[in-house]
Specification:
It contains five helices and five strands, in the order H-E-H-H-E-E-E-H-E-H. The chain is an alpha/beta fold and 121 residues long. The protein has a three-stranded mixed beta sheet with strand order 1-2-5. Strands 3-4 form a two-stranded parallel ribbon.
Length: 121
């Protein structure tokens, strides 16, 4: 059986488009020191989604206490404790003029009350 040569193997070419929508979301997220699942989990659709004004914000830092095999989020002992994060998140959402918002978080097994106080601050 003959195997195909490396030059014969189909290699799709994907052009990453960093349009104005992507640049706007990127600026707002980084200026407000926020985290997104899009970046932390290395989502391949980040350019397309952000360009259309869609992003999933992630609260309570960028380090998870669990090590799920399917996830690319950093694992370790979190040190993130920022009481201004809820305000910064709300301000960013307002600036992005989003009609719908998805906010998720890393698992924080180190917090006593399942981080309820941090979310509802």
């Amino acid at each position: 059986m003959d195997l195909p040569q490396a030059s014969q193997i189909y290699k799709p070419k994907i052009r990453l488009k960093m349009g104005s929508g992507y640049k706007f979301i990127d600026e707002v997220v980084h200026k407000n020191k926020l985290h997104t699942v899009c970046e932390e989990a290395r989502c391949p659709n980040i350019y397309e989604c952000w360009d259309r004004g869609t992003a999933t914000l992630m609260i309570l830092g960028d380090t998870c206490t669990r090590a799920c095999g399917f996830c690319s989020v950093n694992t370790g002992r979190p040190t993130w404790n920022d009481p201004t994060e809820p305000t910064r998140t709300a301000m960013a959402v307002k600036k992005m003029k989003l009609r719908h918002v998805v906010i998720t978080s890393v698992d924080r097994d180190d917090l006593k009350d399942d981080f309820g106080a941090e979310i509802w601050a």
